[in-house]
Amino acid sequence: MRRGLGRLLMKLFDVYPVNEITIVKAKGSYVWDDKGEQYLDLYGGHAVISIGHTHPHWVKRIEEQLEKIAFYSNSVRIPLQAELAKKLGKVSGKEDYQLFLCNSGAEANENALKLASFHTGRKKVIAFSKSFHGRTSLAAAATDNKNNLSPVNETGNIIFLPFNDEQALEDCFKENGKEISSVIIEGIQGVGGINVATESFLKKIRTLCDEYGAVYIADSVQCGYGRSGKFFSHDFAGVSADIYSMAKGMGNGFPVAGIIASPKFKAKHFMLGSTFGGNHLACAAALAVLEIIEEEKLMGNAVMVGKYLKDELENIPQLKNVRGRGLMIGFDVPEELKDLRKNLLWNQKIFTGESKPTVIRLLPSLALKKRDAEQFIESVQAECEMQKAES
Ligand SMILES: Cc1ncc(COP(=O)(O)O)c(C=O)c1O
User: Fold this and answer.
1) Stated pTM of the model
2) Looking at the domain that runs over 77-273, which CATH code has it been given?
């Protein structure tokens, strides 16, 4: 009998609901599918595209690096890592911090939580309602979503508190202060629906962490890298965190992530590590991103275009609770407009994100042009008018 006939081909493990679109080309804030259809991208593939798709400087930097060397492990000196640390210190304003490089947001948070625990010798972590910190181990445990938590991820070490509730935080520290290793918080919750941490809440975290010797971890995986208009959205509170985790926008689509830790953390060999983290290609991509953020003043652009979008969205009567900072914007839509995100995609050819069908998220490139923002507003208005006419 001939082997192979009638055999099944390997399938993908089906973990995501997907849009039936195959993207084959991208440039700036636009992508094209295999049928030549053009889409405006206000989602950036889960907030990843920071400087714009296939930015020529980013492409050149990666191509040039590829011709030299793509990878060697951390057993040798990689001067590009030191170059990246220097540039990151300058652009973020955290020049006295220390950089550790890894590959994804979850891994960055795992390392942040681990470093905090090494430092304090404690086990308990405070996390908040609607948080999202990743899909692995402790990052999954600190995420407020049961679908993401397998029995092996369960731990008694995470204490969940209501987001932005200063009294609950204070009470928790009073009760468990000596056991708390760290507090982990997104400056603006992304997956949870674009919820901004109040400045006074972040200040309170800083004060209580100082008082009880705990570590303040700023999860900046989604809200960082200039998206809010400041390099880290936590910076709006005017206090520094002890550790910042980063990923998404850091490589503009090239997988690279990291944490920066304040000078109070002392590194020891083998406490943290990674095979791929900080490889030559990843550093080249991350450097290109920072160079463009600086050169093209993308944080200023995020403030300007973000303000335009928020103001215009607030003027559309059907939309409620427009929120966010810079180019990290969310708004609620009423039940009758719950297909808005789908309609924007299929009728208007615009990618946006959602937390649930009635919460839309905008996470475009920080280089989004005002005229593209105008096109989006006109499209939302058209969809709202259409819905009104149909009802
Ligand atoms: C705030 C936040 N932290 C961590 C993560 C996990 O990042 P990754 O998917 O790169 O592991 C995400 C991903 O959406 C995120 O939004």
Assistant:
1) 0.97
2) 3.40.640.10
